[in-house]
Write a structure and sequence with these properties.
Helix content is 58%, strand content 11%. By secondary structure, it is of the alpha+beta class.
Length: 744
Amino acid sequence: MKHSFGGKTWITALVFTLALGTLLSALSLPIPWNWLAYALTLASLAALRQLFKLLVKENVKLNAFIKSYSPIAWELACIALVVTVCTFMTWPAAAGDRPVSGDHNLHYFRFWFFMTKLLPHGQLFGWNSLWFAGEPVGYVYPFAGPLWAAAVHALTLGKLSLSQTYGIAIWLAYLTEGLCVYYSAKFLFNRVVGVLAALLFVTDIGDYINMGGWYMTVKTGVWPSSLSIGFSLLALTAFIKLLEGGQRQQMGWFALWAGIALLVHPIQIVNLPITLGLLLVLYALSGRMNLVRERAFKLAGAVVLSVMTAAVWLLPFLSYATSRYLMESNKRRVSLSDMGDSIFNGTLYPGMWLFTAVLGFAGGVALLRSKNPRQLLVGLLFFVFMLIGSNECAALLAQMLSKASAQKIEYMRFLTLLRPYWAMAAAWALCCLFVPRWAVYGLAPVSGANNENVIMESAEKTLNSWTISRIFLQTLIFSFVSFPLLIPFCRSWYTERRDMRMAVESGRNNSVRSELIEWINQRAAETPGFFRVVVFDKMHIHSLFDLATQVSVPVYNLGFSPVSNFFYQLGEYDPRIMEALSVRYIIATEARQDELWELYQRDDDPLIPVGRFDTLYISEFANWNPQRFQIIDGSGEVKLISFEDEKIALEAMPEASGKLRLPVTYFERWEATRNGEPVKITTSEIGLQNRSAFMTVDLQPGRYEFVFRRHWQEKVGALLTVTGLLCMLWMFIAQKIKSNRICQ
């Protein structure tokens, strides 16, 4: 096709020179002339892009080359942009510096325990005697978080320390979230919406109350739930591809992504059924019921395969999901009225850019008019998760479901599920502001080619000299007006992000901590009896708990632990608990020392000041019990033979009678014998009503053994998972073989 715009080559070179010259001159010009220079640079680049398109259309070889490699180049550029921004947002962790703020120390302990206690024995489940009064590992909270960090350790060939590995694992988790949002939004809309949605998602600082954003994921350390959301988005795209005619391998991809999401965080037990069920309803209502029927068998098979993939954890977990072992969710909720006020004020997600909040809400409303089930799903999920996260929905579900089930749902987590769809809606609305015709492709079904291809083909038909001039002027005016607003905006965001940097290991006084660790280990070596140490900081500031990975005695953390759903989390201040658990030393930060003395300084159980290491104060618990057991309601002599994580052996002498109580919380995997004969285990509460359950047995002469055993749920779950993985592998291989045969 001939164009009347002649001399394109030298004009292209001239425009390129103009763009380069104005960019260089902008570096030395004062305000506002540098704004004009930047605007001229962008306008010249915009015109240069259109001129280059004209040149490409007239050069057959260049046109073929561009069409072949342009998609790859754009894809790499988008990925590189997301990677760069995610790395900036998590830089200390990306460099291998472990975050130590919020819940990170607790997650790091779980990773350390997994690597040092479970993985060497080839186990995913076990009993942790270093935390609370013992905790079942892998049963009530998924193990894929530690497994994620273990995979990073394996990929680095074990060259990094566990601390460095954890830091890099956090960076990769945040990066994975961003890329998952990019690929899912690209599939649901197009590449431009995808990259914008990813950038809006990862740059959202967020806050604590509303469970989302950089603050919660990186600063506070609530990263497993966010990581699971990323994998659930990939599962959604695979499910849609399978529904719309995808090959057998899409069943495998869906099962893989959905299985990983379930293994990372239990919120996916609720999220995936809601999302996929709503998707099927939308396709049925859009006149594609026949498509749903035709694919029903494959869709059901994909869901079953995903459950099999996660069965290694899902089966043991479900056996305790409504039992006394699973903790109730916290009571922090918001009402729809509060949400309305916060949306009006732009504070539903404090830390989110105001324009993102406004555009996201407007885009979510607009997408409800879409006739394309993909985009309509985004609009509906936007409001569905907002509704489910409300106090009103919690009250309704409490009436519909059993009380035990309703109380174990973490309703505020649904606002975290809302975040990626908010970013997608905002990105789509932003694109529609600059390219209005894109709104058509969001609100109406597009048959045949991908939305992005249709848009690009439509744009190429309008290429001419007038179009280039118009684009130059539009870009020039818009850029000149925007720069005075955009530069302070970006500067403020950068300053806020810089001031909110995460606390990392290298920023602590590690020499003082090393001295403290050496002091504790020395006391443990010199003490004939057993003892624990208590660490005491603010309720959700677990700054001292990573001491548990370096000292030779168990560490008891005062305060709630958010990285375990175990009901019998003690974490209380009761001196009776301290005595039962053989607590000897209490380590408190300077900010909590006065509160500690108010709690414990009583006539019958005083604290004895021992010393301090910089800002860490050490006190000794006067009523320290050096025995790892107690005889109650009786008397006699009992000798401790061995006390391991999952096996405890004692010998009761001939005069022993009464009851024998261990400082270990009961869990149904524990079994007890006396002289090889089964003994019934009962529980004893100490200090806390319904929140402690120490293992207790009738005391008679003989050898007692307490053993933690795996039951059929772990074995059947592992078998189902291996079977599911083999089925997935077969699907991938079979599809590859089929494709090769067709090509031949």
